[in-house]
Design goal:
By secondary structure, the protein is α+β, with helices and mostly antiparallel strands. It has seven helices and five strands.
Length: about 170
């Protein structure tokens, strides 16, 4: 990893405004789209799960695939490599994107990242606010875990069915 300390204020934002449906699968698909925006991701089998406006067309099995992909591509794999928590760099948005050549002087940025045994070229970085991460990854993934994890569903059902006989 190359680490530079020089401040360069010629940074140009490359992000665009997104309108994500208020649905856990759609939000996770949007998260996957953000991942694919910062790393070289040309696999059609993954890219089909980034079309978050079409979340409603997925089957239950495909919803579960989205959940599993998000678990595999979790934020901890990208934090301080291509994802950076930075309120200042997000401005009024929940997240923002920058081309690597624009930020190498301000942040430690890696040139490639190993995902599932394959080296992926880094194409840009994403900055985010923690509220964005909660809304588009943490909370939806917790709810989808309840939906797709059988053991977790059983525990929750037992907790809901807990009654006291007096």
């Amino acid at each position: 990893m190359a680490m530079y300390q020089k401040n360069d204020y010629g940074i140009r934002e490359t992000g665009v405004t997104a309108s994500v449906p208020d649905n856990d699968v759609a939000r996770c698909m949007y998260y996957l789209k953000c991942v694919c925006s910062v790393i070289e991701c040309s696999d059609a089998d993954i890219l089909r799960y980034t079309r978050y406006q079409n979340y409603w067309a997925l089957s239950n099995a495909e919803d579960e695939t989205v959940y599993k992909l998000c678990r595999l591509l979790s934020p901890d794999k990208f934090e301080d490599k291509v994802f950076f928590e930075s309120e200042a760099m997000c401005g009024s948005s929940g997240n923002n994107f920058y081309e690597i050549s624009q930020v190498q002087n301000r942040l430690g940025v890696v040139g490639s990242i190993l995902i599932a045994g394959r080296t992926r070229r880094v194409t840009s970085i994403m900055t985010y606010k923690m509220s964005w991460m909660r809304a588009n990854y943490i909370y939806p993934m917790n709810r989808l875990a309840n939906r797709f994890n059988y053991e977790r569903r059983v525990v929750l059902a037992l907790q809901d069915a807990d009654c006291t006989i007096s």
